[in-house]
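Re-run with default settings, no changes from the original entry. Doing this only to confirm the output is reproducible before filing.
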Amino acid sequence: MAGPLDGIVVLDLSRVLAGPWAGQLLAELGAEVIKVERPGTGDDTRSWGPPYMKDAAGRDTGEATYYLSTNRGKKSIAIDMRTPEGAQLIQRMAARADIVLENFKKGGLVKYGLDYASLSAINPGLIYCSVTGFGQFGPYSEKAGYDFIIQAMSGLMSVTGERDDKPGGGPQKLGIAISDLCTGLYGTIGILAALHQRKTTGKGQHIDMALLDVMTSLMSNQAMGALAGGIQPKRQGNAHVSIVPYQVFETADSQIVLAVGNDRQYAAFAEVAGDNRLKDAAYARNPDRVRRRASLIPIIEEVMQTRTTAEWCAALDAVSVPAGPIYTLSEVFDDPQIKARGLVEYMDHPLNKDLPTLRAPVLMSGADVGAKTPAPMLNADRDDILGQLGLTAEDIDALVAAGAIMEN
Protein backbone atom coordinates (compact mmCIF):
# COMPACT_ATOMS: atom_id res chain seq x y z
CA MET A 1 0.00 0.00 0.00
CA ALA A 2 1.08 3.56 -0.66
CA GLY A 3 1.35 6.11 2.11
CA PRO A 4 -1.61 8.47 2.55
CA LEU A 5 0.49 11.43 1.34
CA ASP A 6 1.95 9.60 -1.65
CA GLY A 7 2.64 12.15 -4.41
CA ILE A 8 2.96 15.13 -2.06
CA VAL A 9 6.31 16.95 -2.25
CA VAL A 10 7.70 18.79 0.79
CA LEU A 11 10.60 21.22 0.67
CA ASP A 12 12.08 21.21 4.17
CA LEU A 13 14.20 24.31 4.79
CA SER A 14 13.99 23.91 8.57
CA ARG A 15 16.67 23.06 11.07
CA VAL A 16 17.04 21.48 14.51
CA LEU A 17 13.71 20.12 15.84
CA ALA A 18 10.25 21.68 15.45
CA GLY A 19 10.28 22.03 11.65
CA PRO A 20 12.22 18.80 11.02
CA TRP A 21 9.80 16.93 13.30
CA ALA A 22 6.90 18.03 11.11
CA GLY A 23 8.88 17.11 8.01
CA GLN A 24 9.67 13.67 9.39
CA LEU A 25 6.02 12.99 10.16
CA LEU A 26 5.02 14.05 6.64
CA ALA A 27 7.69 11.68 5.27
CA GLU A 28 6.37 8.86 7.45
CA LEU A 29 2.90 9.55 6.03
CA GLY A 30 4.27 9.01 2.52
CA ALA A 31 5.32 12.43 1.27
CA GLU A 32 8.58 13.01 -0.59
CA VAL A 33 10.48 15.29 1.79
CA ILE A 34 13.55 17.07 0.44
CA LYS A 35 15.74 18.47 3.20
CA VAL A 36 17.86 21.47 2.19
CA GLU A 37 20.97 21.80 4.36
CA ARG A 38 24.00 24.04 4.64
CA PRO A 39 26.98 22.87 2.56
CA GLY A 40 29.75 21.43 4.70
CA THR A 41 27.99 21.23 8.06
CA GLY A 42 24.35 20.48 7.33
CA ASP A 43 21.64 20.69 9.95
CA ASP A 44 22.86 21.93 13.34
CA THR A 45 21.86 18.66 14.98
CA ARG A 46 24.33 16.65 12.91
CA SER A 47 26.97 17.87 15.38
CA TRP A 48 24.83 17.55 18.52
CA GLY A 49 26.71 14.65 20.03
CA PRO A 50 27.59 12.51 21.77
CA PRO A 51 25.74 10.22 21.61
CA TYR A 52 26.59 9.20 18.06
CA MET A 53 25.25 6.36 15.99
CA LYS A 54 27.27 3.17 16.35
CA ASP A 55 28.50 1.37 13.26
CA ALA A 56 28.15 -2.38 12.78
CA ALA A 57 31.27 -2.92 14.92
CA GLY A 58 29.92 -0.81 17.79
CA ARG A 59 32.19 2.18 17.14
CA ASP A 60 31.04 5.81 17.16
CA THR A 61 30.38 7.35 13.75
CA GLY A 62 30.10 11.07 13.07
CA GLU A 63 26.30 10.89 12.82
CA ALA A 64 24.63 12.33 15.93
CA THR A 65 21.64 10.34 17.16
CA TYR A 66 19.77 13.62 17.67
CA TYR A 67 19.82 14.22 13.91
CA LEU A 68 18.83 10.63 13.21
CA SER A 69 15.78 10.98 15.46
CA THR A 70 14.22 13.85 13.51
CA ASN A 71 14.93 13.24 9.83
CA ARG A 72 13.82 9.71 8.96
CA GLY A 73 12.54 9.14 5.45
CA LYS A 74 13.91 12.36 3.94
CA LYS A 75 16.25 13.14 1.07
CA SER A 76 19.19 15.52 1.59
CA ILE A 77 20.73 18.16 -0.64
CA ALA A 78 23.20 20.83 0.45
CA ILE A 79 22.49 24.25 -1.12
CA ASP A 80 23.91 27.64 -0.19
CA MET A 81 20.90 29.93 -0.38
CA ARG A 82 23.17 32.93 0.17
CA THR A 83 24.33 32.64 -3.44
CA PRO A 84 21.99 33.87 -6.19
CA GLU A 85 22.28 30.51 -7.93
CA GLY A 86 21.44 28.64 -4.73
CA ALA A 87 18.40 30.80 -4.00
CA GLN A 88 17.17 30.39 -7.59
CA LEU A 89 17.62 26.64 -7.34
CA ILE A 90 15.47 26.50 -4.19
CA GLN A 91 12.85 28.62 -5.98
CA ARG A 92 12.75 26.06 -8.78
CA MET A 93 12.29 23.31 -6.22
CA ALA A 94 9.47 25.26 -4.52
CA ALA A 95 7.71 25.64 -7.86
CA ARG A 96 7.06 21.87 -7.93
CA ALA A 97 6.49 21.45 -4.19
CA ASP A 98 3.20 21.23 -2.33
CA ILE A 99 4.59 22.28 1.04
CA VAL A 100 7.49 24.38 2.32
CA LEU A 101 8.69 24.14 5.92
CA GLU A 102 10.96 26.82 7.39
CA ASN A 103 11.98 28.01 10.83
CA PHE A 104 14.14 31.03 10.08
CA LYS A 105 13.81 34.23 12.08
CA LYS A 106 10.82 36.33 11.04
CA GLY A 107 11.61 37.91 7.68
CA GLY A 108 14.91 36.05 7.40
CA LEU A 109 14.16 34.54 4.00
CA VAL A 110 12.91 37.71 2.29
CA LYS A 111 16.36 38.73 1.06
CA TYR A 112 16.73 35.39 -0.73
CA GLY A 113 13.29 35.52 -2.32
CA LEU A 114 12.30 32.44 -0.32
CA ASP A 115 9.58 33.97 1.86
CA TYR A 116 5.91 33.10 1.46
CA ALA A 117 5.04 36.13 -0.68
CA SER A 118 7.85 35.39 -3.14
CA LEU A 119 7.29 31.65 -3.42
CA SER A 120 3.48 31.81 -3.54
CA ALA A 121 3.79 34.17 -6.50
CA ILE A 122 5.67 31.36 -8.26
CA ASN A 123 3.40 28.59 -6.94
CA PRO A 124 -0.06 29.82 -5.82
CA GLY A 125 -0.97 26.37 -4.50
CA LEU A 126 1.99 26.30 -2.12
CA ILE A 127 1.34 25.60 1.56
CA TYR A 128 4.07 27.42 3.47
CA CYS A 129 4.56 26.66 7.17
CA SER A 130 6.71 29.04 9.23
CA VAL A 131 7.85 27.95 12.69
CA THR A 132 9.23 30.51 15.14
CA GLY A 133 9.37 30.95 18.87
CA PHE A 134 6.80 33.74 19.07
CA GLY A 135 5.08 33.94 15.70
CA GLN A 136 5.01 36.37 12.78
CA PHE A 137 3.48 39.28 14.75
CA GLY A 138 3.29 40.58 18.30
CA PRO A 139 5.82 42.39 20.52
CA TYR A 140 8.09 39.32 20.78
CA SER A 141 7.99 38.31 17.10
CA GLU A 142 11.58 39.44 16.50
CA LYS A 143 12.94 37.39 19.40
CA ALA A 144 14.53 33.98 19.06
CA GLY A 145 12.63 31.30 20.91
CA TYR A 146 14.15 28.19 22.48
CA ASP A 147 12.30 25.32 24.13
CA PHE A 148 13.66 26.05 27.62
CA ILE A 149 12.48 29.66 27.43
CA ILE A 150 9.12 28.61 26.04
CA GLN A 151 8.62 26.06 28.82
CA ALA A 152 9.21 28.87 31.29
CA MET A 153 7.06 31.52 29.60
CA SER A 154 4.11 29.22 28.82
CA GLY A 155 3.52 28.44 32.49
CA LEU A 156 4.62 24.82 32.09
CA MET A 157 7.47 25.17 34.58
CA SER A 158 5.15 26.81 37.10
CA VAL A 159 3.31 23.49 37.45
CA THR A 160 6.25 21.14 36.84
CA GLY A 161 8.67 20.17 39.57
CA GLU A 162 8.64 19.28 43.25
CA ARG A 163 6.63 21.40 45.64
CA ASP A 164 8.43 24.50 46.83
CA ASP A 165 8.28 23.37 50.46
CA LYS A 166 10.10 20.09 49.72
CA PRO A 167 13.81 19.38 49.15
CA GLY A 168 14.63 20.04 45.53
CA GLY A 169 11.48 22.07 45.13
CA GLY A 170 11.13 24.63 42.38
CA PRO A 171 10.43 24.88 38.66
CA GLN A 172 11.65 22.13 36.35
CA LYS A 173 11.68 21.69 32.61
CA LEU A 174 10.67 18.45 30.94
CA GLY A 175 13.44 16.09 29.87
CA ILE A 176 12.58 16.50 26.18
CA ALA A 177 12.09 19.62 24.06
CA ILE A 178 8.34 19.35 24.36
CA SER A 179 7.49 22.74 22.82
CA ASP A 180 9.43 21.92 19.63
CA LEU A 181 7.94 18.45 19.34
CA CYS A 182 4.36 19.60 19.88
CA THR A 183 4.80 22.54 17.51
CA GLY A 184 5.92 20.03 14.89
CA LEU A 185 2.78 17.99 15.54
CA TYR A 186 0.42 20.99 15.47
CA GLY A 187 2.19 22.27 12.37
CA THR A 188 1.56 18.96 10.66
CA ILE A 189 -2.13 19.17 11.60
CA GLY A 190 -2.32 22.66 10.08
CA ILE A 191 -0.57 21.49 6.92
CA LEU A 192 -2.93 18.55 6.47
CA ALA A 193 -5.92 20.86 6.97
CA ALA A 194 -4.51 23.26 4.38
CA LEU A 195 -3.99 20.39 1.93
CA HIS A 196 -7.64 19.45 2.33
CA GLN A 197 -8.82 23.04 1.91
CA ARG A 198 -6.71 23.42 -1.24
CA LYS A 199 -8.88 20.77 -2.90
CA THR A 200 -11.75 23.28 -2.72
CA THR A 201 -9.99 26.60 -3.19
CA GLY A 202 -7.08 25.57 -5.40
CA LYS A 203 -4.90 27.90 -3.34
CA GLY A 204 -2.22 27.39 -0.75
CA GLN A 205 -1.73 29.51 2.35
CA HIS A 206 0.73 30.63 5.00
CA ILE A 207 0.68 28.73 8.32
CA ASP A 208 2.12 30.69 11.25
CA MET A 209 3.27 28.35 14.04
CA ALA A 210 4.66 29.77 17.30
CA LEU A 211 6.18 27.63 20.05
CA LEU A 212 4.72 29.90 22.75
CA ASP A 213 1.22 29.60 21.27
CA VAL A 214 1.46 25.83 21.21
CA MET A 215 2.74 25.39 24.75
CA THR A 216 0.26 27.88 26.16
CA SER A 217 -2.60 25.97 24.51
CA LEU A 218 -1.23 22.69 25.86
CA MET A 219 -1.63 23.92 29.42
CA SER A 220 -5.22 22.70 28.90
CA ASN A 221 -6.94 21.96 32.23
CA GLN A 222 -4.38 23.97 34.20
CA ALA A 223 -5.00 26.97 31.95
CA MET A 224 -8.77 26.66 32.29
CA GLY A 225 -8.40 26.37 36.05
CA ALA A 226 -6.69 29.76 36.01
CA LEU A 227 -8.91 31.39 33.37
CA ALA A 228 -12.34 30.11 34.35
CA GLY A 229 -11.77 28.86 37.89
CA GLY A 230 -9.69 31.69 39.26
CA ILE A 231 -7.15 29.20 40.63
CA GLN A 232 -3.41 29.73 40.31
CA PRO A 233 -2.06 26.15 40.05
CA LYS A 234 1.09 25.24 41.92
CA ARG A 235 3.74 22.58 41.51
CA GLN A 236 2.70 19.25 42.98
CA GLY A 237 5.74 17.15 42.12
CA ASN A 238 4.46 13.81 40.86
CA ALA A 239 1.07 14.28 42.49
CA HIS A 240 -2.09 15.37 40.68
CA VAL A 241 -3.78 18.59 41.68
CA SER A 242 -7.32 17.18 41.34
CA ILE A 243 -7.01 13.39 41.79
CA VAL A 244 -5.80 11.32 44.78
CA PRO A 245 -3.97 8.93 44.80
CA TYR A 246 -2.26 9.78 41.53
CA GLN A 247 1.52 9.89 42.01
CA VAL A 248 4.76 7.96 42.46
CA PHE A 249 5.18 5.64 45.44
CA GLU A 250 8.15 3.68 46.76
CA THR A 251 7.70 -0.08 46.71
CA ALA A 252 9.73 -2.85 48.33
CA ASP A 253 12.24 -2.83 45.47
CA SER A 254 11.75 0.30 43.33
CA GLN A 255 9.01 2.80 42.46
CA ILE A 256 5.57 2.65 40.92
CA VAL A 257 3.08 5.08 39.44
CA LEU A 258 -0.38 4.64 40.95
CA ALA A 259 -3.08 6.45 38.94
CA VAL A 260 -6.46 5.98 40.59
CA GLY A 261 -8.87 7.84 38.34
CA ASN A 262 -12.23 7.21 39.98
CA ASP A 263 -13.92 5.96 43.14
CA ARG A 264 -14.45 2.42 41.84
CA GLN A 265 -10.74 2.10 41.18
CA TYR A 266 -9.98 3.45 44.64
CA ALA A 267 -12.25 0.89 46.29
CA ALA A 268 -10.57 -1.89 44.30
CA PHE A 269 -7.14 -0.57 45.27
CA ALA A 270 -8.08 -0.46 48.95
CA GLU A 271 -9.32 -4.05 48.75
CA VAL A 272 -6.08 -5.25 47.12
CA ALA A 273 -3.99 -3.28 49.60
CA GLY A 274 -5.81 -5.00 52.48
CA ASP A 275 -5.44 -2.15 54.95
CA ASN A 276 -8.67 -1.14 56.67
CA ARG A 277 -7.48 2.42 57.12
CA LEU A 278 -7.79 2.89 53.36
CA LYS A 279 -11.41 1.68 53.45
CA ASP A 280 -12.51 4.46 55.79
CA ALA A 281 -15.60 6.24 54.40
CA ALA A 282 -13.71 9.52 54.70
CA TYR A 283 -11.66 8.45 51.65
CA ALA A 284 -14.43 6.93 49.55
CA ARG A 285 -14.96 9.94 47.25
CA ASN A 286 -12.27 11.70 45.27
CA PRO A 287 -13.11 15.24 46.50
CA ASP A 288 -12.72 13.92 50.05
CA ARG A 289 -9.43 12.25 49.18
CA VAL A 290 -8.13 15.48 47.67
CA ARG A 291 -9.10 17.43 50.82
CA ARG A 292 -7.58 14.73 53.06
CA ARG A 293 -4.47 14.19 50.95
CA ALA A 294 -2.19 14.91 53.93
CA SER A 295 -3.63 12.06 56.01
CA LEU A 296 -4.23 9.53 53.21
CA ILE A 297 -0.92 9.63 51.35
CA PRO A 298 1.23 8.55 54.34
CA ILE A 299 -0.96 5.47 54.75
CA ILE A 300 -0.57 4.57 51.09
CA GLU A 301 3.19 5.19 51.25
CA GLU A 302 3.43 2.73 54.13
CA VAL A 303 1.32 0.07 52.42
CA MET A 304 3.06 0.31 49.04
CA GLN A 305 6.42 -0.60 50.56
CA THR A 306 5.13 -4.03 51.59
CA ARG A 307 5.32 -5.47 48.04
CA THR A 308 7.56 -5.23 45.01
CA THR A 309 6.63 -3.20 41.97
CA ALA A 310 5.99 -6.36 39.95
CA GLU A 311 3.72 -7.74 42.67
CA TRP A 312 1.72 -4.53 42.85
CA CYS A 313 1.39 -4.29 39.07
CA ALA A 314 0.12 -7.87 38.81
CA ALA A 315 -2.38 -7.44 41.66
CA LEU A 316 -3.67 -4.09 40.45
CA ASP A 317 -3.88 -5.15 36.80
CA ALA A 318 -6.11 -8.01 37.92
CA VAL A 319 -8.71 -5.52 39.24
CA SER A 320 -8.24 -2.89 36.51
CA VAL A 321 -6.52 -0.29 38.68
CA PRO A 322 -4.02 1.73 36.59
CA ALA A 323 -0.45 1.31 37.79
CA GLY A 324 2.91 0.91 36.12
CA PRO A 325 6.67 0.77 36.66
CA ILE A 326 8.98 3.69 35.94
CA TYR A 327 11.20 2.48 33.12
CA THR A 328 14.60 3.48 31.86
CA LEU A 329 14.67 3.69 28.07
CA SER A 330 16.44 0.32 27.89
CA GLU A 331 13.59 -1.18 29.88
CA VAL A 332 11.06 0.52 27.59
CA PHE A 333 12.45 -1.28 24.55
CA ASP A 334 12.46 -4.61 26.41
CA ASP A 335 8.79 -4.32 27.32
CA PRO A 336 6.62 -6.94 25.59
CA GLN A 337 3.96 -4.37 24.67
CA ILE A 338 6.50 -2.17 22.88
CA LYS A 339 7.85 -5.24 21.08
CA ALA A 340 4.37 -6.40 20.11
CA ARG A 341 3.55 -2.99 18.65
CA GLY A 342 6.79 -2.94 16.64
CA LEU A 343 7.93 0.51 17.76
CA VAL A 344 11.56 -0.33 16.98
CA GLU A 345 12.48 -0.95 13.35
CA TYR A 346 15.83 -1.75 11.77
CA MET A 347 16.97 0.16 8.70
CA ASP A 348 19.84 -0.04 6.28
CA HIS A 349 22.12 2.98 6.85
CA PRO A 350 25.38 3.48 4.93
CA LEU A 351 27.29 3.32 8.24
CA ASN A 352 25.20 0.60 9.88
CA LYS A 353 23.24 -1.94 7.87
CA ASP A 354 21.07 -2.79 10.89
CA LEU A 355 20.35 0.60 12.46
CA PRO A 356 17.65 0.52 15.18
CA THR A 357 15.19 3.38 14.92
CA LEU A 358 11.64 4.26 15.95
CA ARG A 359 8.62 3.98 13.69
CA ALA A 360 5.80 6.47 13.41
CA PRO A 361 3.22 5.76 16.15
CA VAL A 362 0.38 5.77 13.61
CA LEU A 363 -1.13 2.49 12.40
CA MET A 364 -3.66 2.75 9.56
CA SER A 365 -5.64 -0.14 8.14
CA GLY A 366 -5.74 1.28 4.64
CA ALA A 367 -2.36 2.92 4.23
CA ASP A 368 1.32 2.18 4.68
CA VAL A 369 2.70 4.54 7.33
CA GLY A 370 6.35 4.78 8.28
CA ALA A 371 9.69 5.93 6.94
CA LYS A 372 11.30 3.62 4.41
CA THR A 373 14.80 5.00 4.92
CA PRO A 374 16.81 6.34 7.89
CA ALA A 375 17.89 9.96 8.17
CA PRO A 376 20.06 10.69 5.12
CA MET A 377 23.74 11.44 4.98
CA LEU A 378 24.50 15.06 4.07
CA ASN A 379 23.92 15.76 0.35
CA ALA A 380 23.24 12.08 -0.30
CA ASP A 381 20.41 12.71 -2.76
CA ARG A 382 21.77 15.70 -4.65
CA ASP A 383 21.92 14.19 -8.12
CA ASP A 384 18.53 12.50 -7.79
CA ILE A 385 16.85 15.72 -6.66
CA LEU A 386 18.48 17.88 -9.31
CA GLY A 387 17.77 15.27 -11.97
CA GLN A 388 14.05 15.62 -11.20
CA LEU A 389 14.44 19.31 -12.07
CA GLY A 390 15.94 18.38 -15.44
CA LEU A 391 19.48 19.51 -14.60
CA THR A 392 22.31 17.86 -16.50
CA ALA A 393 25.73 16.85 -15.19
CA GLU A 394 27.10 20.03 -16.75
CA ASP A 395 24.47 22.13 -14.95
CA ILE A 396 25.40 20.49 -11.66
CA ASP A 397 29.11 21.12 -12.23
CA ALA A 398 28.35 24.79 -12.90
CA LEU A 399 26.39 25.08 -9.64
CA VAL A 400 29.28 23.47 -7.76
CA ALA A 401 31.69 25.94 -9.34
CA ALA A 402 29.43 28.84 -8.32
CA GLY A 403 29.41 27.63 -4.71
CA ALA A 404 25.66 27.14 -4.85
CA ILE A 405 25.68 23.43 -4.07
CA MET A 406 28.02 21.06 -2.27
CA GLU A 407 30.34 18.78 -4.18
CA ASN A 408 29.87 15.07 -3.51
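Residues 25 and 32 are 11 Å apart (CA to CA). The radius of gyration is 25 Å.
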